[in-house]
Amino acid sequence: LGWKFYDADDYHSPENKKKMAEGIPLNDEDRIPWLCALHVILRREDSFRQDAILACSALKKMYRHVLVNGASAIESNEPEQPGENAALKILFVHLDGPTDVIAGRLEKRRGHFMRLELLKSQFDTLEPPSAPENFITISIEKSLPEIVLEIEHAIFQG
């Protein structure tokens, strides 16, 4: 697509990375500053009219709301009014799959702070996207080319 790519894991604080490396799940208090920082990155790209892709485990509806609206989303569940701080237009791609498939992929990953033991806490926290959120759900059991085609279709046809 020629879009900028951001891996949200690169923006975790050293404290968050340490917690995860020790097998301690992150909580809302840990995640909110990280999500606000990611919103700032997306807002900056939007201000330059640059499309971007962010790989991020935005597990809860509130987390996705922060990505779209920034820090103001914490105080309110209402979307911001149009204007300078209007909500970002984001398509969330929910990659869905069985725990055992994801666990198998995590076991193969080397040198990452997210430990396999944290997978259960991720599933416990997960609130899959639902209407009126702007999202698509794709099975991770599809091939990578199939997944990419579905995402591209949703971007350009959606």
Automatic annotation (TrEMBL):
Top-level division of the source organism's lineage: Eukaryota
E.C. designation(s): 2.7.1.12
Pathway per the UniProt entry: Carbohydrate acid metabolism; D-gluconate degradation
Reactions listed under catalytic activity: D-gluconate + ATP = 6-phospho-D-gluconate + ADP + H(+)
CDD domains linked: GntK
Biological-process GO terms, alphabetical: carbohydrate metabolic process
GO CC annotation: cytoplasm
Name this protein carries in UniProt: Gluconokinase
UniProt source species: Syrrhaptes paradoxus (Pallas's sandgrouse)
Encoding gene (name): Idnk
